[in-house]
Amino acid sequence: MTGLLDAQEVSVRYGSLAALDGVDLCVHDGQRHALIGPNGAGKSTLLDVLGGSTRPQRGTVRFAGRDIGRLGPAGRARRGINRIHQRPAVFATLTAAENVVVAALPRVIPRRRWWPAGRRRAAQQLAGPLLEQMGLTAVAAVPAGHLAHGQRRQLEIAMALAGRPRLLLLDEPAAGLSAVEVGRLVELLQALPRAVAVLLVEHRLDLVYALSDTVTVLRDGRTLAAGTPDEIRTSPLVRQAYADGVA
Amino acid sequence: MSGEVIRRARGAVAALVLVGLVVAPWVVDDYTTALLARTLALALVGVSVALLTGVAGMPTLGQTAPYAAGAYACAVVGSRVSDVGVVQLVVAAGAGALLAALIVPLVVHARGVIVLMITLAIGELVVVVLGRWRSVTGGTDGLAGVPAVRPFWGLPALASDQGRYLYALVVVATLVGAVLVLLRTRAGLVLRAGRDDETRLRASGHRVAVHLSGAHIAAGAIAGAAGSVLVVAQQYISPADFGFDTSALLLLGVVIGGTASVGGALVGAALVIAVRDWLFGVLPGHAPLVLGALFVATVYLLPTGVNRARSRLSEAAAPQPDPPAAQERATVGEVGR
User: Fold this and answer.
1) In this predicted structure, what is the pLDDT of residue B5?
2) Which residue from A103, B31, B92, B203 puts its CA 20 to 30 A from B64's CA?
3) Is the Cβ of B205 closer than 8 Å to some Cβ of chain A?
4) Which of B336, B250, B268 is nearest to B304 (CA)?
């Protein structure tokens, strides 16, 4: 069965090191799919391949039935794959609201609205609800560079959603967040519309089990196991892998 | 409230400066009037440098290339085809934009110091070509005796320094206004975003290379138009007008004014030209020394430029908002600022 995102036989080598060695991954519409594994398992490399910033030496990546192997990050974003990076990446001198507008421009705001007044209206219609959803209304006019780490993470999620994605790639979204901010992040991710599929890379297994309905485990660049969170939690193979080299 | 007061104060200062510039030719002598007209031309090139360096994040030492292309195109058209200012302006802007478009493949994928080196080399190459293509450019002698311009069909030719200065002022004010409007559109927003984080912009689905190419061509058109203003102002051009010292002076002016600010670029360019040309009379032979000292002092004391330093002073003077007050002000509607 083909999914929204279908990666097959993906291999990436850095010299003699095989970062990914014939990995298959399928993410379906609306699915919450987690990717876990010890350090060096190839999780971030696979996310780089799916996001378009790394080109694999072998294998294919299809999205919504079309081969996207030749597309870079911009082309994939225009087709509906948005990525949230391990370190929040925002436009520091632009306000939070302007950040959301910039993220929305390629897919959402019509081209004819290039005039300031038109852009302002479009921004109000789009950025307001998203910032409210992320709890950022109070800082909408604050330059993103002045926001706290947790707020930047929330802003980045708002930016990703502004592009009306079909698939969100989340690379360790809880990294650097306080316990309170992690709780808020989990609420936000659980509230994402089901029209958006999520592929989550995360070290914290409590988050993985709380957020995902399917888990794939990588080890040494290969797929070790795949299944529901309960199946993965009780898998002896996975336990052994984590006992050998857990982060 | 304080932000509104500062905005109004800035508007009032800009209006006063504009009024001062309009009445200047009736207050100062002819030499100073001609000097002001040339300063306006260089200030307009400074705006194009600021557009590339501060807004698009592409530092350049090569805006003298489209500036020269525009100036020579204007001089040739003015001498052989038409003395109508609008025609000369369009041709000059087109020549600047065309040269900038030809340069795009060399600079659009480079960054930082690499762009500086490439643009510096292109600027020097253009000066060499100007010096050797005698049949069109007059070689190192340049092109002299360009007929006085008539701003529009049916209007008289501008025979006086005052007339040419006012023509330059109208052209520069119009183009600076157009740039300010452009920066408030989605194009300006995306350029500023790319300057902040190009990778993030790409990850949002933007074609960064297309945006940068557009900015480079637009900056080339502005520099080309500035070349036309220079020809009108001094009715003579030579390769010496577009050498490395002019490039360095322009970048210096933009750095002094604050790279991300159009107003700062205008102020910075005016400042360095004033130091170079007026101090030349007061302190013969020492103007470059004063310029160098000014640059060192600016970089040391005001690393973000005069304009940003003024903004920081405004921020420091303004009372810090308490959270509820900030919440009230922080409406999404302010995004269109």
Assistant:
1) 82
2) B31
3) yes
4) B268
Q: CB under 8 Å to A129, separation ≥6 — which residues?
A: none
Alpha helices in A163-204 (DSSP H): 179-190
Report helix angle B244-257 to B113-132, nearest 10: 140
Angle among Cα A217, A219, A224 to the nearest 5 degrees reads: 50
Q: DSSP class of residue A144?
A: G
**H, E, C per residue of chain B:** CHHHHHHHHHHHHHHHHHHHHHHHHHHCCHHHHHHHHHHHHHHHHHHHHHHHHHHCCCCCCCCHHHHHHHHHHHHHHHHHCCCEHHHHHHHHHHHHHHHHHHHHHHHCCCCCHHHHHHHHHHHHHHHHHHHHCHHHHCHHHCEECCCCCECCCCCCCCCCHHHHHHHHHHHHHHHHHHHHHHHCCHHHHHHHHHHHCHHHHHHCCCCHHHHHHHHHHHHHHHHHHHHHHHHHHHCEECHHHHCHHHHHHHHHHHHHHCCCCHHHHHHHHHHHHHHHHHHHHHCCCCHHHHHHHHHHHHHHHCCCHHHHHHHHHHHHHCCCCCHHHHHHHCCHHHHHC
Task: Please give the domain boundaries of chain B with CATH numbers for all domains.
Answer: 2-319 (1.10.3470)
Q: How confident is the model at residue B318 (pLDDT cuts 50, 70, 90)?
A: very low
Average pLDDT over residues B272-287: 74
Nearest CA in chain A to B326: A138
| Chain B residues with CB-CB distance to A141 below 8 A | 329-331, 334-335
Task: Give the closest-approach CA distance of A193 to chain B in angstroms.
Answer: 19
Total-model pTM: 0.83
Per domain, the residue ranges of chain A are 1-80+165-247, 91-164
| Cβ–Cβ below 8 Å for B335 and A101 | yes
Residue A129 distance to chain B (closest CA, Å): 10
Complex ipTM value: 0.85
A-chain residues near B184 (CB < 8 A): 116
- A94: chain B residues, CB-CB within 8 Å: 189, 192-193, 196
Give chain B positions within 8 Å (CB) of A106.
204-206
Q: What is the token pair recorded at B34?
A: 């001609």
Give the gap in angstroms from C-alpha B336 to the nearest C-alpha of chain A: 5
> Which class does domain A1-80+165-247 fall in?
alpha beta
| Pair type for strands B143-144 and A197-201 | unpaired
Pick among A76, A78, A83, A102 to test the B interface (most B CBs inside 10 A): A102
Distance of CA B315 to the CA centre of its chain: 27
The predicted structure's pLDDT at residue B309: 47
- Please give the pLDDT value at position A87: 85
The pLDDT of residue B176 is above 90: yes
B residues 161..190 contacting A (CB < 8 A): 181, 184-187, 189-190
Which amino acid would we find at residue A148?
A
Q: Most confidently modeled of A180-189, A211-220, B64-73?
A: B64-73
